[in-house]
Design goal:
The protein has one domain (about 10-80). Helix content is about 45%, strand content about 20%. It contains 3 helices and 3 strands. The chain has helices at about 35-45, 50-60, 65-80, and strands spanning about 10-15, 20, 25-30. Helix 2 (about 50-60) runs antiparallel to helix 3. The longest helix has 14 residues, at about 65-80.
């Protein structure tokens, strides 16, 4: 799949005045708040590349493999902020 977005993985970094979502080589987004909702939003945004990959795999119609299920579980944990 060819995409135009910054490739993953993306991560969340705390800044003095908010949160930054960073890709491997560049900053993807900045959230200017540090409250609980901003942190949840940042986790969801940072998980976007993983979530997209999971959706593409599901859409392909291939049988669900253990690796795909683990990737889906991991993406959901990241998106909901439950990842360690």
């Amino acid at each position: 799949m060819i995409t135009k977005h910054t490739p993953g993985p993306w991560s969340v970094a705390h800044r003095a005045k908010g949160l930054a979502i960073n890709g491997p080589r560049s900053q993807v987004a900045v959230i200017g708040f540090l409250d609980e909702q901003a942190q949840a939003d940042a986790a969801l945004i940072a998980a976007a590349p993983d979530l997209l990959w999971c959706l593409v795999q599901i859409q392909s119609g291939e049988s669900m493999t253990v690796e795909m299920q683990l990737a889906i579980d991991s993406a959901i944990r990241r998106a909901t902020g439950a990842a360690s």
